[in-house]
Fold this sequence. Notes:
In chain A, about 45% of the residues lie in helices and about 20% in strands.
Amino acid sequence: xxxxxxxxxxxxxxxxxxxxxxxxxxxxxxxxxxxxxxxxxxxxxxxxxxxxxxxxxxxxxxxxxxxxxxxxxxxxxxxxxxxxxxxxxxxxxxxxxxxxxxxxxxxxxxxxxxxxxxxxxxxxxxxxxxxxxxxxxxxxxxxxxxxxxxxxxxxxxxxxxxxxxxxxxxxxxxxxxxxx
Amino acid sequence: xxxxxxxxxxxxxxxxxxxxxxxxxxxxxxxxxxxxxxxxxxxxxxxxxxxxxxxxxxxxxxxxxxxxxxxxxxxxxxxxxxxxxxxxxxxxxxxxxxxxxxxxxxxxxxxxxxxxxxxxxxxxxxxxxxxxxxxxxxxxxxxxxxxxxxxxxxxxxxxxxxxxxxxxxxxxxxxxxxxxxxxxxxxxxxxxxxxxxxxxxxx
Lengths: 180, 203
């Protein structure tokens, strides 16, 4: 098992994410798909360590992870920015009051070259909502920080029984660009 | 023998029964530390009133998420039976969850729908459940073992079978609009902690 302090040389962000998930026994991956998340989604589907499936809504995925945590299985919810915007009620009424270390990973749309007005606007709500809910959140923008941030923030989420959100910046992933 | 063929196929063929009594009958049949996830509203209050068990989880918001929470528990603990107890308004809010359950086909999951066709706790406003037959929706979502309970005895038979044989199961019940016999104590941290101990995850 690779140490978070010594990531494999040249490994892409999603490989580092998979290493961090495995190091923390995060086996359940629920998602509403996103193009930027595609290599991560494909990698967890290809790896028998993980149980991975799409849900019809992000809220549904949050509920599944909550039940799984209480039943002894750790998981993470993958989604894009617009999907996060559907979650505040479920976070405020389920994950936070019931003290669930809900792990979320958001592919950041709406900035650094967005072509869809709706994405650009809803993206503006994400960090204010995270701050209003006093949730721990980290923007992953540098490859050399990914392993450290994931390792420490996952530890903290479990230890403090509180949600954590990882925002994948286009600086890290390349984002999604308009195919003219 | 198909599950559906032994039971009413349409909502209007099912007897309207006491929510409190059906919930008591359900809980009385649980003898293997089965987990029960109570959705919001009167389904939740009635579950509390039927007698608190360490394996009961009482949602306090997040309308519509009883089935997803139950699915998560069922995936984490495949040897334990897990029941989602959900009202018709809540089911209508998260219909996609039925398709997700069908796709994963957890053998240990039972969904019990308590349908009185109303948002009872907010004043009895009608839901769309009298138009969209939720058992038919479940069946069309890929959950073949979905049926309405004809009456109290039929309900108990269905529960007993669902607790013994491979699921997933959907049991539709038509229920009354009586005031619940109790109100859930709203202490989420305590509910979660007791539930995790009840499931053997914490000691």
